[in-house]
Amino acid sequence: RFGGFTLPDFLGDRYESNAFRAFAAIVVLVSAVVSLIAQTKSMGIVVQQMSGLSPTVSLVLATTIFVFYTSVGGMLAAVWTDIAQWLFMTIGLGALFIVLWGKLGGITGMALAANQAAPGWTSLTGIGWSTSSLLTWYLVWFIAYFTRIEFVTKMYTARDEREAKASVAWGLVLVLIFFSVTVYFGGAARALVWDKLKSPDQALPVLIKTYLTPFWGAFTLAGVAAAAMSTVSSLLLLSGAAIAHDLLRKSYYEPRGIVKSEAFYLLVSKLTLLAVGLVALIGAFFTPTLVLTIVSYAVALTGAAFAMPMLLGLVWRGTTPAAAYASSVGGFIATALWAVFTELKLPWARAVHPIFPGLLLSIGLIFAISLVTKPASAETVERFFPRATSKAKVSAEEDS
Description:
- By secondary structure, the chain is mainly alpha-helical.
- The protein is built from 16 helices and no strands.
- The protein has helices spanning 7-14, 18-51, 55-104, 106-117, 131-147, 149-154, 161-192, 203-211, 214-253, 262-286, 291-315, 321-343, 347-350, 355-370, 378-384, 386-399.
- Helix 2 (18-51) crosses helix 10 (262-286), helix 2 (18-51) packs antiparallel against helix 11 (291-315) and helix 3 packs across helix 9 (214-253).
- The longest helix is centred in the N-terminal third of the chain and has 50 residues, at 55-104.
């Protein structure tokens, strides 16, 4: 509706700030790199289980594959390969679910077996979780699904608003189904293969190799790889767009009247993609943190930086550019610092997830500063709130 292509496009246009657009592009890039480290690790584990290669070779091979096909195909290829990857994932993991269901005797059987293997697993706080850390962990994923850059940006590929809205509804249903199945796999791993794991990240591949035939095992591992590749392709493309489109084109060159060819921006995008893939590979080698924890940091960074400016930018005309920018910067920095403190294993930092202080600061800044700073121009308000503005004009005319 507003004519943009990326999340930084929305923030830059809504808040009339190329500086905000540039900062948002940097947040997208940092979050994408952090998330790609996690996805690269998971892809390496899958390749190792499928091929028997060493962890190092598996990581390099996995990175080479997804960087190559993403750089060659672009967003259109990512959308179509997502469909094929979804089929692999659904059929493969569906086969594993059926086998484990029969092995454990349904949900009740799984829960009893998991709790017997790990007493406390079925309690509300599980094993090793405090109430505060658990509640803020839920907060991460609550915020994640309207700020995760790979999800939000894919809606821009829809042909019209109707399809974009429908994709949100259907996406929510599918996510809930897959998450429910994932919980079942977690309990099954606790009950059946936990003593065989060097790391919890290996739980699903080990379940697959242990309880499926070679054919179905290979098919299902391909499904797990497909899930990672779907995310990876989107994140790589977003990294390229963040630098080429958002940072260079929209924040630097075009505001200064400098014209560059489409070939130039395409080259910058592909070079960024290669560089980000290399950084993710290096990070995967030297990051001992669990995959899911790394992903939670990535979505926390975007959640704390973008949730309030996005949400209030769509529903409150009084959200000011200065407030939104300060909210985004403050939320991002607070979350990043808290994540560092958490990785340093400081007890007070580990009590809550990094998104909690970041989101609190973001909320406080956006409301407080909006009350004392200048709002966006009337033209921008009209562009993003056409119905509200039209009603206000009609009401004013009737009063006069």
